[in-house]
Every structure is written in structure tokens, then in C-alpha cells.
Amino acid sequence: MTRPDTTRLVMKFGGTSMGDLERIRRAARIVAAEAATGKKVAVVVSAMAGKTNELVAWTDGAGPAGAGLPLSDDEYDVVVASGEQVTSGLLAMTLRNMGLNARSWMGWQVPIVTDDAHARARIIDIPGETLGAAVDAGEIAVIPGFQGVTTDGKITTLGRGGSDTSAVAVAAALECPCDIYTDVDGVYTTDPRIESRARRLNRVSFEEMLEMASLGAKVLQTRSVELAMAKQVPVRVLSSFIEPDENGALPHEAGTLICDEEEIVEKRIVSGVTMSRDEARITLLGLSDRVDAPADVFTRLAEANVNVDMIVQSQARTANTVNLTFTTGRRDAVRAADIMKAAQGDLAFEEIRVDEDVAKVSVVGVGMRSHAGVAQTMFKALADKGVKFQAISTSEIKISVLIDAAYAELAVRALHSAYGLDAL
């Protein structure tokens, strides 16, 4: 996308915003306010909060396919995609009750074309001509998020948080901005539940948001930010718990715009502090010091689709051995440990230790590229609070440390203050 078509707009409402009929009516009033300004609107909706979990439980209760039959992943998608179908129909009905021309579009009707990786499909294409013509003619298109269709007509789902990705993909197809309405009013310097002095950011770069999303910020799903950056779709995060004023206008000075770095005039050294408790540390003690040992370890994990983040190697007490520590998501820890134990003879290590009582705390900011002393500030702030770190990983615009989980919130508050984020 070169220059977005600002006469069109994609709006997305999450599960909390679709939680019941009254919240759907509020979402409809927000949509109506945008349509009243002359915008050509498409709306992407999630299922009601909690509904997808209920549907997944039903599929679990139905049980696996019998011997000799293919897996039921395709039928799983048929079931769990129905939650968004319900909310898209209800929102379209509510808009019609308000006198607006609205219609629901299922994923196969748009179409949102995906690959055939059921339950975790990726969008291949969204031909925007038919949908674009409909919204340009004044129809409010209501589209279920999270779902798509394969080239041979089977329903797919995009994985948890996939409605954000659906919304950005539709906006890319329509070559327009995307407003994501959620239960927070923007992107904050850190989680306000941890630090009461957290500040809402007016603008965040795509790269910063991508790092924050992958490091524990829950505002947007990582794949949606990747897609927005690749397609240059401006994304604004807004609260769905607002109402149009007496003139029918929305408070658009609120929210956070996620955009290209070049559109941010004053680049902060650090824009945010994030925390993730979904971490586990695995240490292989007394691993053979042969040159290919680490490659052997991480090849086995990669083949099992276990994602590894931080890696630290240190000399062990035993001659010709090392201690190799790495982190992975907590949900993958047991599987990773089982893979290592099964290969203990081949890998030649003495002992494995797994610690899930850890957290990852990170600072993120595009200003790191051009400012020295960012790491020194971080480590001094942690040292002043007596917080020891166990591992470090860095990129051009972030520094992450692994610490004891008990110190996670203390570390977040200390870093938030050290970088002056409470004074923005």
C-alpha cells in the first residue's frame, strides 16, 4: 500500500466488544458514527468473549477420528469459526435496525483465501474488488474475523487472535486504514495494572509494536502487526467503550496510531517496557564441548517446532563440558525437556534442569539505534533494586532479560521510571 484510501475504513471489534447484545449495540453506534462522516466502512468482528473456548471444548468432547480416518482438523474449523458468524450476523441486524444498509459477508464470500493448515491457517489472498465495490456503493460489510477458506472451498481458522490479522488483511485488500476497537484505549508505555503511571502513546512504529507484541504486550496479535508493517497499513488502537457525542462524533484524538517510523517526528529512546511470564528456562548441565553439540540440540528442537529465545553457554566444572541454557515458552517446556531426555545419550549431557519460575522483562524503542547507554541504564536500574538477570537477548530496538518471576513487576516499575516513561 503506497497511500491509504482515507475514504474507506476497516473497523475491528474484539470479543469483549461483542460480549453481549448491549455491547453489540454500542459497537453499532460507533460504526454508524463513522458511516455518518461519509466513510465507506467494512467491519471485522470476533466471537463473543469466551465463545471460542466453549466451541473448542465441544470439539474436544466429540473426540478424535476413528482408526483409518483422517484427522478432524477441518471439521474443528467448521465448529470454532461459527462464533464469528453469529456476531457478524447480529451486528449486521443491529445496524439494519438503526436504518443502515448492512450485510454480513462470510470468509468464503469475500473470499479470504488461506492455505490448508487448519486451526493455524495463513492468509494467501483477499481479492478486494467485489468487497470494495460493495462498500463504495454504501453497504456496511460485516465480516467474521478468524476465518477463511481454502482454494478447494474448506473453511479454515487463523489461530487465536486471528481476528486482528483478518482486519489488517481486509484493510490491505481495500487499501485503507484499520481501526481496532478493544478493551483498552491504546498502547501504553507498560501495563497500567503494574505501573499506575503508565502513559498512553500517541504513535508507535510498526517495529516497536511488533517487538512489544512478541514480548508480552497483549494489545495486538503479532501476526497482525507483521502484516500491517509488510503492507504499510496504518492501524489505530481505540477503546470500544466510548460513545459518540451529542453531534454523533467520535473522540478520535484518543487511541494510538501504529505507523511507519518516518511518521513519528520525535523518536523516543525507549517507548515501552513489557513483561512475559510465559517463559521457561532449560539448562543442560555437563554437555559435551564438541563443536557441533549446540547445533545438535537446537536442530532437534526446531524439528519439533519448539521456538527458542535466549541462549547462554558457560564453562562447566567438568573438563571438556559446558552448561547450555535456553528459554522457550512455558507451554513448550515439557515437550522440549522430553526431547532432550530422549536424546541424552546422543547429546551426552549429565543433567537437565527446567525452571518455570522465571519472567522476561524487555525495553523497546527505535531510539536505541542512535543512542548509547541504553543497556547501562537498564542494568543499573535493576542492580539498584537487587534484581539479578539470568540471560540476555537483544535486537536493534530491544533488550530483554530473564529474571526470577518474583521480581518481574518490581523490574517493570524500576525500568519505567529509569527511562522517564512516567513523564511523557
Average pLDDT confidence is 92
Radius of gyration: 24 Å
Give, in spatial order, the strands making up the sheet with the most strands: 3-6-2-1-9-11-12-10
The N- and C-terminal alpha carbons lie at a distance of 32 Å
Q: Which structural class best describes the helix and strand composition?
A: alpha/beta
Number of helices: 13
What summary fits the major beta sheet? 8 strands, mixed
> How much strand?
15-25%
- Helical residue percent band: 25-40%
Which stretches are poorly predicted, pLDDT < 50 over at least 5 residues? none
Shape: globular
Beta strands, count: 20
Question: What layout of secondary structure does this protein have?
Answer:
Layout lengths: L7 E6 L7 H16 L3 E6 L5 H12 L10 H8 L1 H16 L4 E3 L8 E2 L8 E3 L3 H8 L3 E5 L2 E3 L5 E3 L4 H13 L3 E5 L20 E3 H9 L7 H10 L3 E5 L16 E4 L12 E5 L3 E9 L4 H11 L4 E8 L5 E8 L1 H13 L1 H4 L3 E5 L2 E7 L9 H11 L4 E7 L2 E7 L3 H11 L6
Parallel strand pairs: 1-2, 1-9, 2-6, 3-6, 9-11, 10-12
Antiparallel strand pairs: 4-5, 7-8, 11-12, 13-18, 14-16, 14-17, 15-16, 18-20, 19-20
